[in-house]
Design a protein that fits this description.
The complex is a heterotrimer of chains A (156), B (770) and C (324). Chain A contains five helices and five strands, in the order E-E-H-E-E-E-H-H-H-H. By secondary structure, chain A is of the alpha+beta class. Classes of the chains: A alpha+beta (156), B alpha+beta (770), C alpha+beta (324). The interface between A and C is medium-sized, with 26 and 28 residues.
Chain lengths: 156, 770, 324
């Protein structure tokens, strides 16, 4: 039995019929076609499916789509403006923070949340903010350096 | 401090090589636009699922699929009897027939299951839910068998037989050099230890996934997350159709680390799409991935090493036993790597190595970053520190007295023809580590450790490895590279762009690299063995150089200069020393096209071809070259809880020539953390063949807050076998971390732990707190 | 995930009504981080017919000081607790326990009530697809007895004398050390009486009972609390062992103490012997050493978890020291 939900994804309003056992992750990937959000473990342990739900970073694999009703969701696809990279995206490109790229969407969204809360985080705070996002390729170093280098961040 | 010009990252003579530039694939990845395997759908596609064995060792008495077949929405249910060639002898994508060992590849379990998680049946259905339900309705009757889970036990002649043969021992190698008895008798100190290392999960973030369809010319096309598109041959053999009727496409891969070197979903997909005529998609769950994909081999390693009073190694004897798990896969080759690398980067006059790989009913083991090198590195580098301790020498000093140098021969007789800068890497790593930190509390102990490593790049020379690359220049001066590489995140494709850019003087952004498609890109071989830059880099270098050569006469004519004096740069051709005498590259290309000059080249690069080595003595050449380097680590050990914190980590490796320093550094940093997990937290734990760590809450990959800052020092000897003197770094970068950590812990607590990972339990036991 | 019905409860009464209607075949969902994981993996043979969403009930997400007590609504997110200035200042064990729970993302989703109601941890029990039909599922035996018990109980078994699983909550020992009370749709219970061991059971809640609020009295003058967690990694992990302590002191002498370990037994394990060891003493290296020894005097470690005893002892020591 499908339930009707209204969600705003990257500023676009959707009215969708969803089954109760559908996760927000599967809704985004397979019903809305936003495949930038990745499926890595499905149990909240890898962070590849991170999205911003009503201003908070969550693992969308552990959110039921029906429970996203009435909420605002930001995915990686919602970050660019008029084809321009968001400064965090630019920093990831410039600093070589990307290898296989499978953690990248989640990492960038976690970083975005951090910088909104705290424009001048220390390295320790940066590492903490992405501690729910596993990366197997980079050793995290260039990711941390990229977040440090985002313009507007002031040294602590 | 005087700087060695070779150590400088900037290369003034190159325009692109050695320059840290963003990789061309970075933009799509930050936009979330890269279409990985699971991001790609086809209209009307079905969903494939695998029914996996519930037991590690059992007879299959019967399989009843009728309940599943009857379900509405189920399109196919397949078992072993439905597979045209369920068993094939595979040489794992080899293009050259080699002797020695061939692995049985069995698509679906038949009569007997060998490990828990082995595929027993396949389902394709209209939705994932229906497919899942259909799996539950397949009734398999098993008779449980005792199984064997310890490789040492499995070696006994009367042990439970995992396969159908009469021994669980898959193979044995020997290395013989000099006379170890004599060597030990001339040693003043002999250290003897048995080391153990665990199963390791690759833990790439992207689970195995793919989609297959049949296109209108009856070609089975499989778009799959893989390190080896050449498995199209194996898939065709399973289906019993010509090789050219299977096409494999590899999109960007979300991490491989060796586990996507073996076939994962591709055969299943091909079978299901071939049976149903419809597109079929299959993506494994994380649990499915962990319980059924390959693991890094656990080893039991008995080492005996002797040295004279002044620290010169006299003899080394090693017995290596690896757990191959339930199927052969790449175990013989992994073992051969370990066997050749068993001495480490040291010159030892008397060497005896005996190695075995053994079937058990554990999850099968195969390639994992390092391919047999990290296991022995842990053992030989622990031995070196123990010898140093016994001889009251510093860890660096004893190593310096024994490092192999360029022109020296390995125990296998192979003379090192390319750069060997191990000593320099060790000195620099230790220098950068600096003085030990002060403990933060009275119960904390600080220790520092050093380890050096040696690992090959490029495949074994008796496999007669080759790669091909197409480089073409378009009428507007832009460049197209076509090369069948699989890009698993290491920048495999991007480095080819750098090479073509350098030779043709065209900016990176005007170079398009098409990769990973057996129908459209020249076959480049596997993205394994740290071979891609070496092999496909050289092929691309060759092709680009040929294209340039074919443009030169016309350009010389147009510029009224001699071809030797021409420079290609910034999409222009100009006369050396007279940049004003320039013409646009596009004009040269157009003029060449009008004259019918060939504007592309497909080049093949062949690695050195050697024959199979003598497995009784190990003598011969196995690898094209090696990458050498060192790690230095500082740890703090909490003596009341056994917790180890890594305070400092320095990685110093000779990369030959960094094509893109950002990428090379990234490999070294990532490799360091990969090795750190091996040292401290990672372990696939099995209880009589059943995985107890099927998720990331039990299998503990280091997180951002566990990772130390990695200080990378890249040496550039420009003395490697790759393009521009590059060496391979992908796998070697993780080689010597674990022993460096183990040595640091031993330095901190004054006791040596012989088993990885270095858990609190083992540390507290060594501290005699338990 | 298999199918289930999903019902949004608008009031507590409605949620209770749904629970009664389904008679044990429904589960409450709040943050979802534990229940959805359990359902995805199908770790138990039974599967809920319905999930009752209580996030739609207004007024259950709050942190306030009222009538001399700290009150925390059941739906309060762990991250909000970790960051709350009053909790950080006055109830530091709870703030620290929340901060050390799971990962930043999970803390933005997981609720305080969900955390204390979460199911136990044992890799045999939690193995997907009911691979080990163990004692706790009504099956024949505990697989950890002869199996790999490196993360199991050091204080013996329970549930028909057999189950060696451990309770993984970081919040629970903090609440017990702070002598919190748990208000449900039916009653108010002391935190230390909330946890109860049984087949498929970790607490005393009836089938139709829902946690609504956590209440902690203002700490007495001179009291301090602390929480220490030991895990393999610095984030995400469940504890190998954790410990919370509250110490009330006066003129340098310990007047009262509450010390609770977790992840060492099927329910949070209050170590009164350690409390006794420290009461009347000043906090010093010697006295905390005694408390540590007393805390684990009754330990009955298994083949693979003796190290947990040493860690538990150390954590008790350090938790008390941190209150000094």
């Amino acid at each position: 039995m499908r339930k009707l939900i209204n969600v705003t994804i990257n500023g676009v309003e959707y009215e969708l019929g969803v089954k109760p056992n559908l996760t927000l992750l599967d809704l985004l990937r397979y019903e809305v076609g936003l495949t930038g959000t990745k499926k890595g473990c499905e149990t909240g342990e890898c962070g590849a499916c991170t999205v911003i739900l009503d201003g908070k970073p969550v693992t969308s694999c552990l959110v039921l789509a029906v429970q996203a009703n009435g909420k605002k969701i930001l995915t990686i696809e919602g970050l660019e403006k008029d084809g321009n990279l968001h400064p965090i995206q630019q920093a990831f490109v410039d600093k070589g923070a990307i290898q296989c790229g499978f953690c990248t969407s989640g990492m960038i969204l976690s970083a975005k949340h951090l910088l909104e809360q705290n424009p001048s985080p220390s390295e320790a705070e940066i590492r903490k903010s992405i501690s729910g996002n596993l990366c197997r390729c980079t050793g995290y170093q260039k990711i941390v350096q990229a977040i440090i280098s985002v313009p507007g961040r002031t040294e602590k | 401090m005087k700087k060695d010009p070779k150590d400088q990252l900037s290369n003034y003579e190159y325009q692109f090589i050695g320059k840290p530039v963003p990789r061309h694939d970075a933009w799509d990845k930050v936009f979330g636009r890269t279409k990985y395997a699971d991001d790609f759908d086809m209209p009307g596609m079905l969903f494939g699922k695998v029914l996996r064995s519930s037991y590690p060792a059992a007879k299959i008495l019967s399989i009843d699929t009728s309940g599943a077949e009857k379900m509405p929405g189920v399109a196919a249910v397949l078992t072993a009897k439905d597979v045209p060639n369920n068993e094939t002898v595979t040489r794992f994508g080899q293009t050259h027939q080699v002797g020695g060992f061939e692995g049985l590849y069995r698509v679906l379990a038949d009569k007997k299951v060998r490990f828990m998680g082995e595929a027993v049946a396949l389902v394709a259905a209209e939705t994932e839910e229906i497919a899942e339900e259909a799996l539950a309705r397949i009734k398999v009757e098993y008779e449980q068998l005792p199984g064997v889970f310890d490789p040492l036990e499995a070696m006994n002649p009367d042990a439970y037989q995992v396969g159908e043969g009469d021994s669980n021992i898959i193979c044995n190698y020997q290395v013989r050099k000099g006379d170890v008895k004599e060597g030990f008798s001339r040693s003043h100190v002999v250290v003897e230890n048995t080391y153990r290392v665990p199963f390791v999960e690759h833990a790439f973030l992207e689970p195995e996934s793919g989609i297959a369809w049949i296109d209108d010319s009856e070609i089975i096309t499989i778009r799959v997350s893989t390190q080896v598109i050449e498995h199209f041959r194996d898939v065709a053999d399973v289906l019993g159709i010509p090789h050219n009727k299977v096409r494999v496409i590899a999109p960007m891969v979300g991490g491989g680390f060796g586990s996507k070197e073996d076939i994962t979903v591709e055969t299943f997909l091909a079978l299901l799409t071939w049976k149903t005529g419809k597109p079929v998609k299959m993506t494994w769950t994380r649990e499915g991935s962990i319980i059924s994909s390959s693991k890094r081999h656990p080893y039991v390693m008995k080492y005996k090493t002797g040295a004279t009073r002044d620290g010169k190694l006299m003899a080394m004897e090693a017995q290596l036993i690896s757990d191959a798990g339930a199927h052969v896969y790449l175990s013989p080759w992994v073992l051969l790597y370990s066997t050749v690398d068993a001495t480490g980067p040291y010159d030892i006059p008397n060497v005896k190595v005996d190695s075995y790989t053994v079937l058990t009913n554990n999850t099968f083991t195969s390639a994992n970053r390092g391919f047999g090198a990290p296991q022995v590195c842990f053992a030989y580098e622990s031995q070196m520190d123990e010898l140093a301790r016994r001889l009251s020498l510093s860890p660096l000093e004893i190593r310096k007295r024994n490092y192999l140098r360029k022109g020296d021969a390995l125990a296998t007789g192979r003379v090192l023809e390319y750069g060997v800068e191990t000593e320099k890497t060790a000195i620099k790593a230790l220098e950068a580590l600096g003085e030990p930190s002060m403990p933060s509390s009275p119960t904390e102990k600080i220790g520092q450790g050093l380890a050096s490593g040696m690992m090959s790049y490029g495949r074994m020379t008796f496999l007669h490895d080759t790669s091909r690359s197409y480089v073409g220049i378009e009428l507007d001066g832009s460049v197209t590279v076509r090369c069948g590489v699989q890009d698993i995140g290491g920048g495999q494709a991007s480095s080819l762009a750098s090479i073509a850019a350098e030779i043709l003087g065209v900016p990176m952004e005007e170079i398009k690299v098409f990769i990973g498609d057996t129908a459209l890109t020249p076959i480049a071989g596997t993205t394994t063995a740290t071979r891609m830059l070496y092999m496909s880099g050289n092929a691309t270098l060759k092709a680009a150089t040929e294209v340039k050569k074919s443009l030169l006469p016309k350009a010389a004519e147009m510029l009224e200069a001699s071809p030797e004096d021409l420079v290609f740069r910034d999409k222009k051709v100009f006369v050396r020393g007279a940049p004003a005498r320039a013409i646009p590259l596009a004009d040269v290309v157009k003029a060449c096209a009008a004259d019918g000059v060939q504007l592309y080249n497909v080049a093949q690069f062949n690695a050195p071809f050697r024959e199979l080595i003598d497995f009784k003595t190990g003598q011969g050449q196995v690898f094209p070259d090696f990458t050498f380097g060192s790690h230095a680590v500082e740890v703090a050990v909490d003596t009341e809880t056994g917790k180890v914190r890594v305070l400092k980590l320095v990685a110093c490796y000779d990369v030959g020539q960094a094509i893109n320093p950002l990428s090379a550094e990234g490999q070294i940093e990532g490799g360091a953390l990969y090795g750190l997990g091996y040292a401290l937290t990672e372990e696939v734990i099995l209880d009589k063949g059943i995985t107890l760590t099927p998720s990331f809450s039990e299998y503990l990959v280091p997180t951002s807050v566990d990772a130390p800052h990695v200080k990378t020092i890249m040496l550039e000897s420009r003395d490697g076998a790759g393009p521009f003197g590059a060496k391979g770094i992908g796998e070697p970068s993780c080689n010597s971390i674990a022993p460096a950590v183990a040595n640091a812990v031993a330095n901190a607590i004054g006791a040596r732990i012989l088993d990885l990972p270095l858990t609190p339990e083992k540390i507290l036991r060594s501290l005699q707190k338990l | 995930m298999k199918r289930f019905a999903h019902l949004n409860a608008r009031t507590l009464d409605e949620a209770v009504l749904y629970l009664r209607r389904y008679g044990g075949r429904a589960k409450i969902i709040a943050g979802g981080t534990d229940v959805l994981g359990r359902m995805k993996d199908e770790i138990v043979p039974t599967y809920p017919e319905a999930l009752i969403n209580i996030k739609t009930i207004p007024g259950l997400d709050f942190i306030e000081e009222r009538e001399g007590s700290l009150k925390i609504g059941a739906l309060t997110k762990l991250e909000d607790i970790a960051r709350h200035p009053v909790i950080k200042a006055k109830f530091s064990a709870l703030a620290e326990a929340a901060r050390r729970t799971a990962s930043p993302h999970i803390r933005e989703m997981g609720t305080i009530a969900g955390n204390i109601c979460q199911d136990i941890r044992c890799w045999y029990y939690r193995a997907p697809n009911n691979r080990f039909p163990c004692l706790r599922k009504g099956g024949g035996r505990c697989y950890a007895i002869e199996g790999d018990n490196r993360y199991h109980s050091i204080f013996g078994a329970s549930v028909d004398g057999g189950c060696l699983a451990v309770h993984p909550s970081d919040i629970a020992p903090a609440l017990i050390a702070l002598d919190a009370k748990i208000r449900t749709s039916e009653r108010k219970i002391k935190a230390e009486h909330f946890f109860e061991v049984g087949v498929c059971k970790t607490n005393v809640l009836e089938e139709d009972e829902i946690v609504t609020e956590i209440e902690i009295s203002q700490p007495p003058v001179g009291s301090k609390s602390a929480f220490i967690k030991f895990a393999a990694r610095e984030t995400i992990d469940f504890p190998v062992v954790n410990c919370a302590a509250t110490i009330v002191g006066s003129e340098g002498t310990v007047q009262a103490a509450r010390i609770c370990l977790n992840a060492v037994y099927l329910k949070p394990y209050r170590v009164t012997s350690a409390e006794q060891a420290i009461i009347g003493k000043t906090i010093s290296d010697n006295s905390v050493e005694d408390a540590g020894i007393e805390a684990v005097r009754q330990a009955k470690p298994l083949a693979r978890n003796t190290y947990m005893v040493q860690i538990a002892r150390t954590l008790v020591k350090r938790a008390v020291l941190a209150c000094g």
